[in-house]
Amino acid sequence: MYLLDKLSSILNSDDRSSTLYSFAYYVYTHLFEVSDMTINELSGNCMLSNASVSRMITKIGFANYKEFREMCEEITRQYKLENPDRNHFMITPNNIADVMTNILGPALAAIRENDLDCFLSYLAPGHTVAVTGMVNMRTVAVQIQQNLHTRSGYHVIVPSDLSVLRDLSEDDRVIILSVRGNYIILSEIMETLMDCKAGKLLVTTTHNPRKQDYPFDHVVRLASPVPQYLINNYLVEMFVTMALCRAGLYD
């Protein structure tokens, strides 16, 4: 959908210190809640004035707050239609301890050894490994790069321009980290992946409503406990950490 496309584009290209980036990040990570907010509530949560929120909304292509909120409502409605068995979920100060113990803990315990081994096979030394991800997943990609850059035989890149993937050979590897599957929304990413000759791995969650595996050679779908972005973001990050620890590659 247009809004998700635009937010993803901002979060992957704009200056992280900019007001637009901060606004896009809040909306992206609280989309279901935003669909029920007034402009006063959204302004307060983003620590911006109403006028600033109105400017941000105009910058991402909406005529007014009503039009923007209707798009948020439509995305929320569509998600609930596609995921009827999942209840809307929010993390609050009152439930955070329970979330970590009873929701995230079992999800981490359920990670399969063959998925860890599959991930590590893509990180094997001797070829170029391009690791990238949407929004916060880029931080995880950099974590992988930092843990391997001093180790003999490893060559990990975190490309800012994905067109470099077209230059990789069949012996190289690409790892895409995407909690929600936004790589499919952005057509230029899909086109680049289809033109890429390297072996391709997707690490995502079962919260990703897009079940399309192509053009990936392997897909790791981590069992997603709840449809909550930050929890699933943390689940992917911990999966990567567990894999690196398993291979003695985590510093």
Explain what you see:
This protein is of the alpha/beta class and 251 residues long. The protein has 2 domains: 2-82, Arc Repressor Mutant, subunit A (Orthogonal Bundle); 105-246, Rossmann fold (3-Layer(aba) Sandwich). The protein is 52% helix and 10% strand. The chain is built from 12 helices and 5 strands. The protein has helices spanning 2-13, 19-29, 31-34, 39-46, 50-59, 65-82, 96-109, 113-122, 137-148, 182-185, 187-195, 229-246, and strands at residues 128-133, 155-157, 173-177, 199-205, 218-222. A 5-stranded parallel sheet has the order 2-1-3-4-5. Helix 9 (137-148) links the parallel strand 1 (128-133) and strand 2. It is globular. The mean pLDDT is 83.
For the structure shown, list the relevant keywords.
five-stranded parallel β-sheet; Rossmann fold; about 250 residues; alpha/beta; Arc Repressor Mutant, subunit A
Euclidean distance between termini CA atoms: 39 Å
Count of domains: 2
How many beta-strand elements? Answer: 5
- Overall shape: it is globular
Arrangement of strands in the largest sheet: 2-1-3-4-5
CATH top level of the largest domain is Alpha Beta
What's the number of helices? 12
Sheet having the most strands = 5 strands, parallel
What is the percentage of strand-forming residues? 5-15%
The CATH homologous superfamily of the largest domain is named: Glucose-6-phosphate isomerase like protein, domain 1
- Averaged pLDDT: 83
For the record, the CATH architecture of the largest domain stands as 3-Layer(aba) Sandwich
> Which consecutive residue ranges, at least 5 long each, have pLDDT under 50?
none
Order of helical and strand elements: HHHHHHHHEHEEHHEEH
Radius of gyration from the alpha-carbon trace, in angstroms: 19 Å
User: Which structural class matches the secondary elements?
Assistant: alpha/beta
In the CATH hierarchy, the third-tier topology of the largest domain is known as: Rossmann fold
Q: Helicity level, as a percent range? A: 40-55%
